[in-house]
Amino acid sequence: MKFVIQQEELQKALDVIANVVPSKTTLPILTCVLIEAEGGRLKLSATNLDISIATSTDQVEIKDEGRIALPGVRFIPYVRNLRPGPVTIVQTGEQVRIESGKGSKLTENTMNVEEYPALKELEEKNGLDIEANLLIEMINETQYSVSRDETRPALMGILWELRGDTLTLVATDAHRLARSRRNMNWTYSDDKDLIVDTAGLRQLPRIAAALKDDDEASGNITMFIGSNQLSFRAGNSILHTRLLEGPFPDYNAVIPEGNDKHVTVDKADFMQSIRRVSISADRITSQIKLGVESGRMELSAKGTDGTQAEDEIPVAYEGDAMEIGFNYGYLQDILKNIKAESVVLSMQDSANAALIKPVSEDGVETGLLCLLMPLRLAGD
Questions:
Q1: pLDDT tens, 37-78?
Q2: Domain range for 283
Q3: Helix locations, the chain, DSSP H
Q4: 286 and 199, same structural domain?
Q5: Strand order in the sheet with 192-197
Q6: Mean pLDDT over the full length of the chain
C-alpha cells in the first residue's frame, strides 16, 4: 500500500476516530487504526467493540491499494505534530514508513489486519434526518445526568423516545433528571423507545464537526435504527453505538405536579453565588442551602470545620418564605447546560423534588426540564 495525503486532511480524519481507539484492551488489535486505500478513497476506522467510527476522504493520491492495521499510540500523535504539507505512507512487508517534509520519518510495525474485527454495517433503511447542532444540544442537555452505577446499566444510557414528530431524550441517576424534547421535521410512523449508550453519543460532536468543512453537507445527521445499534451518518463519517437493554424507569412518575413556588433568577448571578458559598460546603454532602422570600434569595453553606459562607442575590418571587438544600455540584451541572440567561426554580417544600427550566426571551417553552432531589436540611 502507498498513498500521499495532505497532513491537514489526514489529521482531520484521525480527529474523528481517535477517541474510540482504546489505549488498554484485552484485544491488542483494537489499539490500531484500520487504514484502507482503494477505489480512489482513503478510509480510516476504529472500534472498541461498543462503538465504531469510520470516516473517508477522496482528497488522496493512492499509488498502491491495500489495507493495514497501524497502532494508534504513536501514529495519531505523530501525524498531529507534523508540519502542514504532503504526507507519504508506504507499506513494506510488515512495516509502514510515514514521511513528511525534509527529514520527518517514522517507521512503525503493523499488526495482522486479518485479526481486525469486522466493522458493523450500516443498516440503511428508514433514515431520520436531524439538524446536527440541535441533536448535540439535546445530548448536552441530558448527558450529565446519566448514572455511573454499573448495577443499573439502563441508567448508564440516555432514553430516546421517538414519536410521530417529536424526539425526547431523558437521563437520570436517581438524584437528578434531565429531559430534552423537540419537535422534529419528520414523520415517524412507529412509537419507539431506545436506550442509547452514552459513551457512543459523546462521539457525535466529532463527526458533526467534519460537516463544517464539507461544502456539500447539509448540516444534518441521518439516524438509522438497527436491531441492537443506533447509527449516525454525517457527511463522510459513520458512527455506530450500541443499544442498552431496559427497562428504563417510568420517569414521568417522579416529575411533581404540585410545585407552586416559582423563583426566577439570573443564571449568571446564580452560578457565581453558588461558587462563592460552595467554598465552605461540607466535602461529603456538598450541601448548600437556598432561602427564598419576596424579591431575594440567600445562599449559605457550612463546613464541619466551622467555616461558613453566605451570599444574597435578587430574584423574582412573591410567595411564602422557604428553605431547601441541594448538592451544589448537581445544581451547577444543570445550570452549566442551560443556554438561557434566566431560569425558573419551581418548588413545593424542602422535602420534594425541585424543577428547573430555562426562561426563553420570547416566553416560549424551550423543551428542557430538569429535576433535582433536595438534601435533608439539618434540623428537619
A1: 999 999 999 999 999 999 999 999 999 999 999 999 999 999
A2: 255-372
A3: 7-17, 72-80, 132-142, 198-201, 204-209, 267-278, 328-336
A4: no
A5: 192-197, 157-162, 166-172, 176-183, 368-372, 354-359, 342-347, 261-266
A6: 93
The tens digit of pLDDT for each residue in 251-290 reads: 999 999 999 999 999 999 999 999 999 999 999 999 999 9
319 with 262, same domain: the answer is: yes
Which one, of 11, 8, 16, 5, lies nearest residue 75 by Cα?
11
Q: Provide the β-strand partners of residue 34.
A: 45, 69
Q: Which residue has the cell 430516546?
A: 160
What is the reported pLDDT for 379?
A: 56
Query: Are 51 and 89 found together in one domain?
Result: yes
8 A C-beta contact, residue 104 and residue 84: no
Per the CB < 8 A criterion, the answer to whether 56 and 41 are in contact is yes
- Cα(224)–Cα(146) distance, integer angstroms: 23
Helix (H, G, I), strand (E, B) or coil at 334: helix
Same domain, 209 and 270: no
Other beta carbons within 10 Å of 310: 15
pLDDT of the residue at 364: 62
What confidence tens digit (pLDDT) does each residue in 198-210 have? 999 999 988 888 7
Q: What span, in angstroms and rounded, lies between the C-alpha atoms of 203 and 210?
A: 12
Supply the CATH number for residue 99's domain. 3.10.150.10
Cell output for 296: 431575594
What is the distance between the alpha carbons of residues 241 and 263, in angstroms, rounded to a whole number?
A: 40
Element of type H or E holding 5: strand 2-6
Total tally of structural domains belonging to the chain: 3
Task: Single out the residue of 324, 329, 330, 332 nearest to residue 375, CA to CA.
Answer: 324
